[in-house]
Amino acid sequence: MLVSFIIPHKGRTELLEQTLQSIANLEFDQTELEVIIVTQNNTLDDLKHENTQFHLQTIFQPGDKTISALRNVGVRHASGEYLVFLDADIQLSPNWLHVMFDELDQHPDRVLVSAIQQCAPEAGIIEQIRVILNNTAADSTVQFLDGRDLFLKRSIFEKAGGFPEHLVTCEDYYFTNTVHQQGELYFTSKASYIHLGEDKSYAEMFRKEIWRGQSNLQSMRGRKIILRELPSFFMPLWQGVLLLLSIISLGIAQIDFAFFSLVISCLPIVLYTLRLYGIGKGRIQFLDALHFYSIYFPARTIGTIIGLFKVVNIS
């Protein structure tokens, strides 16, 4: 096989079926493709994949393994010269694979390529905000990439040592940052994907951001941290400490200090709201940006603190 798609899977089968259909719709010779689903869902026997010509393999794994472990298992069963790491809720544009080959093969210094996110037709405000934030670095080289759609040679993956199985989340940033030591990571707008599993409500977003924040600090170990990453690691702790000081000060009747600590703890929310409103260029209202970060930062603070003591799994 020329290309092996590695798809870790835990939950919703209907989204996985749409992901497989988008692979079947790729403008590429399907006989050169294999798809390896590494799943922790025992009900996957009823998976529908009609009208597909690629080779499909399903591997079942215990529920206690991380996403990284599932991806590494998939690679061990793969035969492709090129690897695609794809989430189980991604709809690729039909030209995706051709663009990936062009962007990788025409530039010798590049070792990994990924495409921009596109809004679904019925996208809500959370998805619209995510797309704006995710695409700010489009058509440029980057230090790390989100793990939803990654394309690279198998030899590069092996040199990088695979995904970090000790991380519950943030494994994609850790892995791509390691791959970056071998060459350029490129983020292209010539192809795209739709994130079918994007958060639809702020309640869902709050729950998932708690989970996503658990490996924030652990992902710093063993790799070089760039300057612009630091806020995402330390702002949750900043907020947590200041909120605690505010509560303690309120308990001992230090009202002025309690109010001051509360205001300072909200500073990241205000600054990031202004940044999002600016890069949104009229596509996002200020109150929507403020609402987003008023949910995001508290959830990340809770997740980071939880991650210091234990891991909470999410299905």
Automatic annotation (TrEMBL):
One of its GO terms (molecular function) is transferase activity. CDD domains: Glyco_tranf_GTA_type. The keyword Transmembrane helix applies. Pfam families: Glycos_transf_2 (PF00535). The chain crosses the membrane at residues 230-252, 258-278, 290-309. Residues 4-128 form the Glycosyltransferase 2-like domain. Keywords: Membrane, Transferase, Transmembrane, Transmembrane helix. PANTHER family: GLYCOSYLTRANSFERASE (PTHR43685), GLYCOSYLTRANSFERASE 2-LIKE DOMAIN-CONTAINING PROTEIN (PTHR43685:SF2). This is Glycosyl transferase, family 2.
